[in-house]
Amino acid sequence: MYPISPQLAAFVAKTESFTSNDASLAGLRQHYERMCQAFTPPKPEGLHIDDFTLAGVRVRSYLPAAPTPAEGWPCLLYIHGGGWVVGGLDSHDFICFELASALQVLVIAVDYRLAPEHPFPAAYDDCRDVWQAIQAGQGPCAINLHRRVVIGDSAGGNLAAALCLGLRDDGHALPKAQVLIYPGLGGPADLPSRRDCMDAPLLSTGDTEYYSALYLQGAGKPSAYAMPLLAGDLRGLPSALIAVAQFDPLRDDGMLYAERLQAAGVNAVLYPGKGLIHGCLRARGHVPEVDRLYDYLLQFLRSEVLTQV
Q1: Which of 4, 30, 60, 275 has its CA 20 to 30 A from that of 169?
Q2: Is 5 annotated as catalytic?
Q3: Which candidate in 154, 212, 223, 239 is catalytic?
Q4: Beta strands at 177-181 and 239-243: parallel, antiparallel or unpaired
Q5: Set 92, 223, 252, 278: catalytic member
Q6: Is 172 a catalytic residue?
Q7: Could you say which of 93, 248, 252, 253 is catalytic?
Q8: Cα dist. 16→9, 10, 189 in Å?
């Protein structure tokens, strides 16, 4: 039904081989961790990794072995996906390895609290607290506060967008850019992608509704910090790269957010993700269309983070 490449189909089959009949929350997390481990490459040479806490939140830093730049390290704050319900520091080592090594920048990953034990706004608060701790000079090393980017995939893309909204609304220092990879931004249920990709590989429309319900339980009327597409004013936000996947029920969330950012005068670039599916970042090195996404992502980050302005 979905015309994905043979290489991507093989990735889907391997990913789905880790599912089981245990539908409990503990089972879901265990299977997700096993799947993530299977797709995590060895740690690159010349990368120092350290786990610690910032503002009471567990984080992991990925620091290149190169000398500290004179003005401090450019820094990427990485917020992992997993529907706000699964994932953690280990689940996204694969992309943090890549970003820190390829770009020679500091990456800090956030181990935010998970729903349903900790529904909204716990994850949002944790990400914001870590950002503010870095702003206050509590990071693991010298950081260039003018060359920070927030990046997240899926639920992490939601949190990255929400972080930018909250910081702007309160007049606090903003990232130089925001990178949202197949983000779930709280789009309406009648978006075409919800119907067209209802049973798409690795994420169905039903899945998105399930995870959102766990995250938003007890939140009352959702705010823009939970569902960024509810924001009435997108002016003054950081420049954005929004990468969507063609065969993903969340595709139109990202497309709509990019359109609204552009209409508000924000420099927003949309990567259309032709032939891609939700969760495909782990197919790096095995699927050419995923490698092209990485090439574009790294090019964008080089221009936003590594080019001194």
Answers
A1: 60
A2: no
A3: 154
A4: parallel
A5: 278
A6: no
A7: 248
A8: 10, 10, 26
Nearest to 11 by CA among 148, 202, 251: 202
pLDDT of residue 23: 85
Confidence of residue 305 (pLDDT cuts 50, 70, 90): confident
| 89: three-class secondary structure by DSSP | coil
Contact in structure between 243 and 274 (CB atoms under 8 Å): no
Residue bearing tokens 């850019």: 177
Kindly give the pairing relationship between strand 73-79 and strand 57-64.
Answer: unpaired
Nearest CA-CA partner of 254 in 141, 175, 160: 160
Q: Which two tokens stand for residue 187?
A: 């789009």
Secondary structure (DSSP) of 34-82: HHHHHTPPPPPTTEEEEEEEETTEEEEEEEESSPPPTT-EEEEEEE--S
- Say whether 295 is catalytic: no
Whether residue 249 contacts residue 203, with contact meaning beta carbons closer than 8 Å, is answered with: yes
Contact of 147 with 305, CB cutoff 8 Å:
yes
Q: Where are the domains of the chain?
A: 6-306
DSSP track, 161-210: HHHHHHHHHTTPPPPSEEEEES------TT-HHHHHTTT-TT--HHHHHH
CA 29 to the chain's CA centroid? 18
What's the confidence (pLDDT) of residue 181?
98
- β-partners of residue 243 are 181, 271
Q: CA 165, CA 162: separation in Å to the nearest integer?
A: 5
Q: What is the pLDDT of residues 8-64, one digit of tens each?
A: 999 999 999 998 888 899 999 999 999 999 999 999 999 999 999 999 999 999 999
Crossing angle between the packed helical segments 288-301 and 93-103, to the nearest 10 degrees:
50
